[in-house]
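Fold it.
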Amino acid sequence: MTEAILLVGGKGTRLRPLTARTPKPMVPAAGVPFLTHQLARARAAGVEHIVLATSYLAEVFEPYFGDGSALGLHLEYVTEQEPLGTGGAIRNVASRLHSGPDDPVLIFNGDILTGLDIPALVDTHRGSGAEVSLHLTRVEDPRAFGLVPTDGTGRVTAFLEKPQTPEEIVTDQVNAGAYVFNRSVIDTIPAGRPVSVERETFPGLLAAGAHLQGMVDSTYWLDLGTPQAFVRGSADLVLGRAPSPAVPGRRGDRLVMETAEVAADAKLTGGTVAGPRTVIGPGARIDGSAVLEGAVIEEGARIRDSLIGAGAHIGARTVLDGAVIGDGARIGADNELRDGIRIWCDAEIPAASVRFSSDQ
């Protein structure tokens, strides 16, 4: 297998304000755009040609990655004029594929951080004779996911919507967002209209008697759809819990990019990233957080499990816990922001004006 389709067209609305100016796959995780980790892992698995299905802020991808040669890849870009859903996006890029009808094509979503054994998924696909194979993962609480039960051989038996009652939870296996399609199956997806592979393509294939195979892989897996998950994923990459050959430095308690300025007595822990041209002031304490390019953290600030957008400014002694600060926002000194609060891009909060916590 030498080809893949990468679905990177979503608006990332759950990640706002991070995605107000940047498409979700381009938000930095562990020092580089998240998409870099996915491309590097695909290349390490033997993929050579990847077509990116773009839509929202599509113009930012090609200037950054170019033709992919720096990563040892051949990249192409196809932009949807109107959102087409997962299946429609796959069909929309089919003309750029070089595979024959029976060749496998890897398809993966641009918001999943995973340690999936990609060659094993392809081997499972070929060995089972399936038309489509799905990466499945087990989750402790599957209520937020569509369920994918399989028989004793791993063959998919149903696709079930998010369960509403305990009786509907018939399996803990869920769709993990990576697939192998025979090229011929891609060509059967209707063209020119929105199509969901989860709600239309997969159930339709199953109803028609097609062979869909599931492979349960219980390595690291995280849907980066929320700011809290994104921050966690970035930290896990730095800490080495999530695999990637694209982390720009040694894994450990922190990642400080080359042009960052960190005061000698500042303490960065828990997989914290200090991005390019960031400034971390004296006595600052930052744990499990990502400080993006050009942001400034003043002296004595306390930051935990938070994401600080590019060019943002955090005042002295301010406390952030589980907060998301948009690009260019300015938070004055002696504020306290907690519990998932989001501050929009370029917003300004005066000194000592906000004290927010869950017990107030």
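The chain has seven helices and 28 strands.
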